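My current task is to audit a protein record that another person submitted. I need someone to confirm that the token line plausibly describes how this chain folds. Take the sequence as given and treat only the tokens as open to question. This is what I was given:
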Amino acid sequence: MTAVTEHKVDAVVIGRNEGQRLVDGLASLSGHVRRVVYVDSGSTDHSVQNARAAGAIVIDLDMTRPFTAARARNAGLEALADDPPEFVQFLDGDCALDEGWTRAALAAFAQHPRAVVVCGRRQERFPDRSIYNLMADREWNTPIGPALACGGDALMRYAAVKSAGGYRADLIAGEEPELCLRLRRDGGEIWRIDALMTHHDAALTRFGQWWKRAVRAGHAFAEGAYLHGAAPERHWIKERNRAALWGGLLPVAILIAFAINPAFLAVVLIYPAQILRLWARSGRGPHDLKIAALTVIGKFAEAQGIFGFWKGRITGRRRGLIEYK
């Protein structure tokens, strides 16, 4: 695959059983990068064959060791070490690169010499297919400008990522913000630009999937705060505390108060009040009330993830991957 610029740009794609989405994602990289490394994590479909047919370098991840997306991305980085690129485009197997992204991202790197990561708008392909897909689409729409972190799709300076030690391979969630934190500590900048970057298929159609995704987020908040919660970053302290309060501490306090005096059960009305507050703040659109309700309900799932992380810490049994699709 041939890059369209004078820069050396390679790509690392990770996936498992992504089917046609992987085929589309690999095709979208053609003409934008010189090499593609596809890291497969135990697919049982034709992902490996499809990747080879697309001209990608294929790495079969050793699945006898605990799997993490971070470990897969590190394997992709190592496969590029023989002829290191200047930039590496990370792409999840359920995403396709937008046609204008590479040019826009490289222009941003030229404009911001200290930038080590540039990301753009990850857009859901089917936001109208479910309320959960719509929530994901809104989640991807982060503010433009200097940022604290990126998601799974981003263009990064290869040397900076390698110098930082790559991704933390044992993290089952939240590996991109953790890497970005270390890159910023090293003096790098993370930029979110106003450009369409990738087309993503969350494929979230059931409540159970969405719940597991929220549990995963809670685990990431807890582990991120455990690793980097000290000043000055206070990494994910606010998110962890908010989830712990609304999804854990407050329900327990209400139950205790109810046991003392049943009249205290009225305090539970704080939850519908919070839903209405979020609904009013979001613009009161046709889907905003559902999203507000799910946001509040999601705090219980996030609290479950926080509890799971600390249970693992106390028992010495590290939690495995939390998969939602």
